[in-house]
Write a structure and sequence with these properties.
The chain is an all-alpha fold. The chain has 3 helices and no strands.
């Protein structure tokens, strides 16, 4: 299974800060919160 660019970016953010909330991850990845929630 190949990850999308957005999925990879979210994984990198979580790897650096596993306690980040959805809003923080969304802001760092530059995508909407609901999209982050769907991906996770």
């Amino acid at each position: 299974m190949k990850l999308t660019e957005k999925e990879t970016e979210i994984l990198e953010i979580l790897d650096e800060n596993s306690r980040a909330d959805l809003e923080t991850i969304a802001k760092m990845a530059g995508i909407p919160v609901n999209e982050v929630q769907t991906i996770i």
